[in-house]
Design a protein that fits this description.
Length: 424
């Protein structure tokens, strides 16, 4: 097995990482949407609720595309899926420059770009972990962090474009930039040959040998028959809804509640992006050190405090930026911890499908939360989100891992109904 691929020309695996980081930085620009809200309202006379809903549609189609793209890439390879994703992302954003009614904006930036972002997003992480079995935590953190940094990188570029060319023309230029960068990064993606092992690395016995009897191997149907699945769903929905409620209108919050200029309020985009990246790296280490359950609990407590502060206490500029730092940090932490917790609770064999079933509620949160913040007012929306985060914290207090599922020699499509125990 070790020599099966020795005569093949193996690409430098760090080039694969470089391409992945380039892709994720470009994809992370999705979280700068709040910079476009007011310029679009002023340019076209649309309502704030209409423009914010564009971001919701983008994330909803992003979450759906992740599920299908993950399955397709296993069949045709990540490079092809990533290239298509890059082309769709660039095309959707560029076509948004021709939007004269909000529904065309929904179709282009929302549907087309959303599908492209989801298709491109899923490929780098799945590819890089195969190249770095000995550094999965590090590589996963790097890739996830790059997505968070993307908003920080593109914020000044977007503001310059809007100031010099107007919001519509900005979409055209940004679409071209996103498309070129994502496709360029995708060209560096490659899967390792079968049986690949990094030089000098030997897999642990538990990975090299057969799975022990009674190990976790939940199908999606089995997982959905456990209360733990709905705990993950609640954490995904409540946490994402609270964070996206801020991220989607961060600049608007600063301008409306504090009276900041677009440039000053736009600094919230930078703080969210930076701490989103830190959260994706930091919470992984925190949860490894102190455990998943205490980390999830701490995450939701911090998120709830940030939401209650923004809802109940008159904000200063400094307080606004600190609150957005907390929101970004906690949002990044959920992105890092929930896939890991899904794998630990339900096993690695079906983690893609199982996490996909949980991740769909990210899309549902995206469809509901941003528009809710506009419809009922920022303070009321933040109060609702704070209460939801308290519920998420309470769920964490009582959370326990499900019991294992014993697999028969031949497991049918239904499998066995898992026996849920109080295992932790």
């Amino acid at each position: 097995m070790e020599t099966a691929y020795q005569n093949e020309k193996i690409p430098n695996r760090w080039l694969v990482v470089a391409g992945s980081l380039l892709m994720q930085l470009s994809l992370g620009a999705i979280y700068t949407w709040s910079l476009f809200n007011r310029p679009l309202v002023e340019a076209h006379g649309w309502t704030p609720g209409d423009t914010v809903f564009t971001f919701s549609i983008t994330l909803a189609f992003f979450s759906v595309a992740v599920i299908f793209a993950g399955r397709i890439q296993d069949k045709i390879g990540p490079k092809k899926v990533a290239i298509v994703g890059g082309l769709l992302t660039g095309l959707g954003v560029a076509l948004a420059s021709f939007a004269t009614n909000v529904y065309f904006l929904y179709l282009t930036y929302g549907v087309i770009a959303g599908i492209g972002i989801g298709a491109a997003y899923v490929t780098p992480l799945a590819t890089c972990v195969k190249w770095f079995p000995e550094k999965r935590g590090l590589i996963t953190g790097l890739i996830l962090a790059a997505l968070g940094v993307g908003g920080m990188v593109f914020k000044p570029i977007i503001l310059i474009f809007i100031t010099k060319f107007g919001v519509s023309q900005s979409f055209l230029y940004l679409g071209c930039i996103y498309g070129v960068l994502i496709v360029a990064g995708a060209m560096l993606l490659a899967v390792p040959p079968k049986g690949y092992r990094p030089p000098g690395w030997t897999p642990p016995v538990s990975q090299a040998g057969a799975a022990p009897a009674g190990s976790r191997r939940f199908s999606t149907g089995q997982a959905m028959r456990t209360p733990q699945f709905y705990m993950l769903v609640a954490w995904m929905f409540f946490g994402s809804a609270a964070a996206l409620m801020i991220i989607s209108v961060a600049a608007n919050i600063g301008m409306t509640m504090i009276g900041l200029s677009l440039a000053a309020a736009g600094n919230a985009v930078v703080t969210i992006a930076l701490f989103n990246a830190c959260g994706r790296l930091g919470w992984g280490w925190i949860s490894d050190r102190f455990g998943r359950k205490p980390s999830i609990l701490a995450n939701f407590i911090m998120l709830s405090l940030a939401m209650f502060y923004m809802a109940l206490i008159p904000m200063t500029y400094a307080g606004f930026l600190v609150a957005t730092c907390v929101v970004g940090f906690c949002f990044g932490g959920l992105a890092a911890m929930l896939p890991t917790l899904t794998a630990e609770w339900f096993g690695l064999a079906n983690v893609g499908n199982n996490y996909g079933a949980v991740f769909i509620f990210y899309g549902i949160a995206a469809l509901t939360a941003p528009r809710l913040s506009i419809a009922i007012g920022f303070e009321s929306a933040f109060l609702v989100a704070g209460i939801a985060c308290v519920i998420g914290a309470v769920i964490a207090i009582f959370a326990r891992a499900p019991g294992v599922v014993k697999q028969p020699d031949t497991l049918g499509s239904e499998g066995l109904k898992p026996k849920v125990t109080g295992a932790s």
